[in-house]
Amino acid sequence: MTTITAPTTGPAANVRSARRWLALSVLALAQFLVVLDASIVNIALPVLGEQLGMDTAALSWVITAYVLAFGGLLLLGGRLADRYGHRRIFLIGTAGFVAASALAGLSVTSGMLLGARALQGASAALLAPAALALLTHLFPDTKDRTKALGVWGGVAGIGSAAGVLLGGVLSATLGWQSVFYVNVPIGAIVLIAIPLLITRDTVGARGKLDIPGAVTITGALVAAVGALSAIEQVGLTHPLTIGLAAASVVLGVAFVVVERRTAAPLVPLEVFRNRNLTVGNIVMLLIGAAMVALFFALSVYMQAVLGYDALATGLTQLPLAGALVIVAGIVPAVISRIGAKPTLISSLAVLAAGLVWLSFAPADAQFVTDILGPSILIGVGMGGAFVTTTQLSVDGVEGGESGLAGGLVNTSQQIGGALGLAVLGTIASLRTEALLDSGVAAPEAITDGFSWLFLGTAAVAVLAAIAAGFARKS
């Protein structure tokens, strides 16, 4: 079985809770909101755009503004949590997320909405790594932490799947504003409960903060996510795409140079000597790439091709989400029996099989015969993969770097999501355009384009399984 070393040092080493499983449920609730908000807006975009006067290009920034801020600031957020206290930074991030969500729901102009989405992403970048760090300290025992991380990984997967479901239900019944307002009461519960459930943590060393490292890595990640988003919006060879990609490379190189020379680096490069942490982040990047592209394509396919409304589209995700929940609860026991590495590889194989099956869905697909089976397989694979990958990503991490580990795995998921949507979305779009130009009817052309996308996500899952093979033996 994979050994997950209990933290012994760092600002949160003294964090305690007499009701730690209840505390875990509250932390997981906050993480659920963070993951959910990356996708819940998708179905509401058409109505939102009509009411706020936003064209297609502007609407894409409703998603991009959140992802840019979230993905770009995660590593800094993790380090701030290690430095100033995990509970403190978690509460600051949650408060900012609640305020930004309310602001987004109140938006009357596109600029107001985009600003609120960027603030949501920045707040999530503080919340997410701090929450995972708190979890690792609340459960120092290997067996208990395996169960806790099973819940955590399951929540991450459920949040991705539930975005389409809740987005459809809320936007169809309560209006587009409700996809933002739903965060407010839930976030308020988190803000009230956590101080009651988790003791105040101590702070880390107050030495000089690695400002050059923070600036270069944040700039590199923002430029990278921006370049990937620009591929979808303006094309691979557009000057904006090329410029952002070049800036990301230059800033990334500068970051490595800074980290090698500074006495107190933002991201100690030695952390990547931990093989399971490195493999876990690579796998999470690939899973994020497959899942974001999948849920985007499913949402469009159900509505544009099969003619489902927003509510029906959301409800079709129930079997996938249900399978994921069930498997996430079972996986910790499976890991204890056969080990993390075999569990992860098997889960990714099931995921790839479900995605290949889904690629055969026709333009006149019936849900029960063509969509239900693949959805269940995908849910099973996702449940196992998210739980196990999260465990690998914090394997052997000491207390003083638990926030960093949380920032790394969340960054991998966000960068992977942007990469998958840009690359696989472009492939699907090019295939659809080619078929339309040759005279193929729109439903069949769109379906075939998405078939290529689903096959692409299956290939990514296979690559993730290959990467998982390099994990340390469990």
Structure description:
This protein is mostly helical. The chain folds into two domains: 395 residues, MFS general substrate transporter like domains (Growth Hormone, Chain: A), CATH 1.20.1250; 54 residues. The longest helix is centred in the last third of the chain and has 36 residues. The protein is globular. The N terminus is likely disordered. It is a multi-pass membrane protein. Keywords: Cell membrane, Membrane, Transmembrane, Transmembrane helix, Transport. It is found in: Cell membrane.
Give descriptors for this structure.
single chain; 474 residues; Growth Hormone, Chain: A; 2 domains; disordered N terminus; EmrB-like
Under CATH at level 1, the class of the largest domain stands as Mainly Alpha
Total strand count, please? 0
Helix percent reads over 70%
The gyration radius over C-alpha positions equals: 21 Å
Task: Assign the structural class, choosing from mainly alpha, mainly beta, alpha/beta, alpha+beta, or little secondary structure.
Answer: mainly alpha
* Total domain modules: 2
Order of helices and strands: HHHHHHHHHHHHHHHHH
Number of alpha- plus pi-helical segments: 17
List low-pLDDT spans: 1-13
What CATH architecture of the largest domain would you give?
Up-down Bundle
The global form is globular
- In CATH, the topology of the largest domain is named Growth Hormone, Chain: A
Termini separation = 4 Å
Strand content: under 5%
Q: How confident is the prediction overall: mean pLDDT?
A: 82
Name the CATH superfamily assignment of the largest domain: MFS general substrate transporter like domains
Q: What's the main sheet like?
A: none
